[in-house]
Amino acid sequence: MLEKTFEPQAAEPRLYQQWEESGLFAPRVATAADGAADAYSIVIPPPNVTGSLHIGHALNNTLQDILARYHRMKGKAVLWLPGTDHAGIATQMVVERKLAAEGNVGRRDMGRDAFVEKVWEWKAESGGTIVRQLRRLGASCDWSRERFTLDEGLNAAVRKVFVQLHKEGLIYRDKRLVNWDPHFQTAISDLEVEQREVDGAYWHFAYPLADGVTYEHPVAFDEAGQPTEYETRDYIVVATTRPETMLGDTGVAVHPDDERYAGLVGKFVTLPIVGRRIPIVADDYADPTKGSGAVKITPAHDFNDFGVGKRAGLPSLNILDAFARVTDVDTPDVPSEYVGLDRFAARKAIVARAEEEGWLKAIEKTRHVVPHGDRSGVVIEPWLTDQWYVDAKVLAQPALKAVEQGDTVFEPASYAKIYFEWLRNIEPWCISRQLWWGHRIPAWYGPSGEIYVAETEEDARELAMADYDSEVALTQDEDVLDTWFSSALWPFSTMGWPEKTEDLERFYPTSDLVTAADIIFFWVARMMMMGLHFMDGVAPFKRVIINALVRDEKGQKMSKSKGNVIDPLGIIDELGADPLRFTMAILSGTRDIKLSKQRIEGYRNFGTKLWNAARFSQMNEAKRVADFDPATVEQTINRWIRGELTKAERAVSDAIEGGRFDDAAGALYRFVWNVFCDWYLELAKPVFQGTDQAAKAETRAMTAWTLDQTLKLLHPVMPFITEELWAELGKEGPPRETLLIGAEWPVLPDAFIDASAEAEIGWLVDLVGEIRGLRAEMNVPVAAKPALAFVAPDAITAERIARHRDLILTLGRVSEVGSAEAAPAGAVTFVSGGSTVALPLAGIIDLAAERARLEKEIAVFDSDIGHVNKKLGNPNFVSRAAPEVVEEQRAKLAEAEADKVKLQTALARLGEIG
């Protein structure tokens, strides 16, 4: 007999060990009959080696595991390939902090080789944390194939790709703007930039016009916006939030259609402090409606300005060094007192001088968004520097075509718009990073600065011999590659490329990719580009499933500062992995999952319901019977549950195949809780307790068989509790041939759906449901058992009443079931199964008290509805309140209106009684 409750803390480690030791995580052995459709593969989005399991990982890997377990049970050779990302900047930061905490010398004092060795030591000791945590979630990855983006095989793939793309002219070195982190002194990707709203200011500076030029500037306007008064000016006003960058200004831009400055285009200003003569240029970037309409242009320190500078032919002058201190390397005209100042100290000094000299016209306080390094926390500086780039525009074209023509599809399809928008407007991809941990760039420099790109230093020396008569010293590039570069090769490099391996032949392209929307362009698009380029034009996956973002119960983003983070490991410790997994699945159909611990606790109750159903079955001797054939059952309830199970299997299979995990979980919930537990087992009780031995034996066997099939259907979503029940229930009846993870998915024929049984039991279920609903609605005391009367029932209904009288009495909690030509006095009527049914309640409920209760509750709802409508009718509230707050109010209104309708219906029913 089963224990009273399932204890996940004890069972989960034991069950997971059984799965691993069984070898079932690995793909099954190939057979001669296998075709492409017999393989299913999926590569895990590699989490950072520094990471710990967070709620986003829990969602993403739950969905992947559902797919892997489902297709494994469908008989496919399943490869779910796991691994971790070396996470360049994050890992380097962790190890540097560890060294500092231990009192060791810094990275630069230690030297590159010694530091990298320390990182590998850290990785060996601490780098497996998240992999162990994924096991706790139940992830059925093939751990024997686990990869690391910096392992030897992937390193060889990265070098080969870099060299080949360089030979094709698709990797090159260029001086461009990058996101520069002055703390880590490296370029970082857009994904590593966090936009923070901070207090700041616009400083309005007057730049004097050169060569004695003046112009008439409008200062007053009529109602039509036409100027009526002018003043003569010998300066032009620009505004900036970063005054220190003025030291690198090389132009002032005005809009070509801005009549105020039409006569100044082609003229010059004299840049204050440095005295540099810079031109006034016309460019669409300048917005006549913002500020003065004139914009200072610093091409070396602003991405938009860089574009203006390119179009106007303006020089790019770097005025900051790698530490964000003022430098005069490009700008010898910068006064010496500014050289060496931190950028913010320089800002204060420049503003002070502008005020002192009178060219500071105004200071306008503002709140604005400033980019910060997501790990360093410092303000990111757009910085002009030499870096390695990929010509992403060329590689993007096949990637666009593959999705346009349906070779790869997005689910939901709307996410393809993000993919298209980014690829159609793609910029060169900066792939070099000024770090020590990562794939070192396979480029060597000769004594005269020549660059030799090769897979090995030996190959680079051979290339150098063509330029030199004798062997010369070569120096390898100090930079490493962007982590996303190696990750872009993940679907094929992890399967052994550039070698032609059996895994590549069997499992590439992969079937699905499950990932988040925020890395569609950073990772998905780049995998598409690289896969198509290096795998003979074959896209790396057939379908991309975008999972939702997990927020708190109010729809707010989770953050430690808000104290609203849900720790999945804490949930697993307390409630087990299955409730968390089921919650993730059933809520996954929205773009934003609103998660609370209470919801997870609710789905723990779902597992408890299943466990109790299994215990009930055992107590009623429902044992598995060898060679039992569900096609032969005769009892109506057994034919009915067979059909309901078949429909549930169809719904679950179709939903998982379609990537609709919420629909799959919803179908499972409805079948297990509402159909099997609430109705079938209730309907089976009289049979179990009756004297018809044949009916009893059939129903016991059918209950055990149905429970087995239910465990199979539920296993991909809730693997632990189902595996435990599979083992425990397998102790009676014929021996199990396999663990549940290796069992075959149910294949149920259409003939199992019995229309007559469905109609019969459907009639009974609907009738009892109506009675129960009416009792609750009318506040009928639990102990009260009113009589039930069918009004002039037809012959079929009369037969059903006779067959199911005892069940109606028990389940509906009524004293008798009869018929009448008309509804009795004092009765409430309803329609069920096409028949009018009467439930006399006069004398059972206090009509006056009930009417007063309902009217009072309706009045409360009227007040609530009026209050919420007032809020939602206020344009200021709708426009200014957080979107999740507005949505919460709309949901509250809809719920209140629905509840009010129910109460009004109940009040109307009271009128029938008198």
Strand percent estimate? 15-25%
Give the structural class: alpha/beta
Low-confidence stretches: none
Distance between the termini: 54 Å
Structure annotation, total helices = 28
Helix content: 40-55%
How confident overall, as mean pLDDT?
93
Main sheet makeup: 4 strands, antiparallel
Task: Name the shape in a single word.
Answer: globular
Total beta strand runs: 31
What do these coordinates show?
By secondary structure, this protein is of the alpha/beta class. It has 28 helices and 31 strands. The chain has a 4-stranded antiparallel sheet with strand order 6-5-16-18. It has a 4-stranded mixed sheet with strand order 12-13-11-14, with helices on one face. A hairpin with a 6-residue loop joins strand 12 (268-270) and strand 13. Helix 18 packs across helix 21. The longest helix has 31 residues, at 883-913. The two termini are 54 Å apart.
Topology, please?
Elements (H helix, E strand, L loop, with lengths): L7 H15 L16 E5 L11 H19 L3 E5 L1 E2 L3 H14 L5 H4 L1 H15 L2 H9 L9 E2 L3 H16 L3 E11 L4 E3 L4 E16 L6 E7 L5 E7 L1 E6 L10 E4 L13 E3 L6 E6 L12 E3 L5 H10 L30 H15 L2 E14 L7 E10 L1 H13 L4 E3 L4 H9 L4 E2 L1 E2 L9 E3 L5 E3 L3 H8 L10 E2 L3 E2 L1 H5 L2 H4 L8 H6 L2 E7 L3 H15 L6 E7 L1 E4 L15 H8 L1 H10 L5 E4 L1 H23 L16 H22 L3 H29 L3 H22 L4 H11 L25 H23 L10 E4 L3 H18 L4 E4 L6 E6 L2 E6 L6 H26 L2 H6 L2 H31 L1
Parallel strand pairs: 1-2, 3-4, 11-13, 17-25, 24-25, 26-27, 28-29
Antiparallel strand pairs: 5-6, 5-16, 7-10, 7-15, 8-9, 11-14, 12-13, 16-18, 19-23, 20-21, 20-22, 28-31, 30-31
Helix pairs in contact: 1-23, 2-18, 10-11, 10-16, 11-16, 17-18, 18-19, 18-21, 19-21, 20-21, 20-22, 20-24, 21-22, 22-23, 24-25, 26-28
